[in-house]
Design a protein that fits this description.
alpha/beta, UPP_synth-like, manganese ion binding, UPP_synth-like_CS
């Protein structure tokens, strides 16, 4: 029903043969994180309900996952639902909590075939049971895959993640398993939900908003940021490649200086 409504009301035509940048295949970011923003505004521009934008955004997830896999990206982290998103209207939240079932129910066979491994960061325990089951089923079905990691940030908030990491370290100190003077950045990194993943090389946020919205605050310390006015349902392979081209043109110094600047 939503698909028929979206096709009827339509949107701006996209250029079929839009030029794509030429990428250096040796400098593809290992980990790309995306704040998927603009579903509601996409729908509003077309006089559609907000849930139509979320449904269309789900299709973009598939498209970008396939392109990330094709490009050789190792980890794709998608900010799907934040701890603050519970404040949205109840019908919208309920719809969003059904999307993982629909997405994974439809595309899980393709993810398995493509050797994609599904992961999740966030508070799994407080998701609705049907949402948690769908994600758990996908993680179990892809557990042996060793290709692209498709990492959903679901019921995720970075401050809560860091707080929980601090609590776990404080408990270890209280139980005399470690000394307070042993705490360092590496230990904190290892206590986060992303401990087994490389830190993001590139962060993309769609829709024109320029903020992090409580997303991976620790992990993004030296990440390259790229913001676009494109709304998430309109984000496509060209835009992803454009972001990577900008990333490849940057000089990542990690707080240091270029050698020629020290001569």
């Amino acid at each position: 029903m939503l698909d028929k409504l979206i096709r009827k009301k339509g949107g701006e035509a996209k250029a079929e043969n839009e030029d794509r940048p030429v990428l250096d295949e040796t400098v593809i970011p290992r980990h790309v994180a995306i704040i998927m923003d603009g579903n509601g505004r996409w729908a509003k521009k077309r006089s559609l309900p907000r849930i139509a934008g979320h449904h269309e955004g789900m299709k973009t997830v598939r498209k970008i996952t396939r392109e990330a896999d094709r490009l050789g990206i190792k980890v794709l982290t998608l900010y799907a639902f934040s701890t603050e998103n519970w404040k949205r209207p109840k019908p919208e939240v309920e719809f969003l909590m059904r999307l993982p079932e629909e997405f994974l129910g439809t595309y899980l066979p393709e993810l398995v075939e493509r050797n994609v491994r599904v992961r999740m960061i966030g508070d799994h325990e407080h998701l609705p049971p049907h949402t948690g089951r769908a994600i758990t089923r996908a993680m179990e079905a892809t557990a042996d895959n060793d290709g692209l990691i498709l990492n959903f940030a679901m019921n995720y908030g970075s401050r809560a993640e860091i707080t929980e990491a601090v609590r776990s370290i404080a408990k270890a100190v209280a139980e005399n398993r470690i000394g307070a003077d042993e705490i360092d950045e590496s230990m904190i990194t290892g206590a986060l939900m992303t401990a087994e993943l490389p830190e993001p090389d590139l962060l993309i946020r769609t829709s024109g908003e320029v903020r992090l919205s409580n997303f991976m605050l620790w992990q993004l310390a030296y990440t390259e940021f790229w913001f676009t006015d494109t709304l998430w349902p309109d984000f496509d392979e060209n835009r992803l490649q454009e972001a990577i081209a900008v990333y490849q043109a940057r000089n990542r110094r990690y707080g240091g200086v270029d050698k020629e600047d020290t001569d």
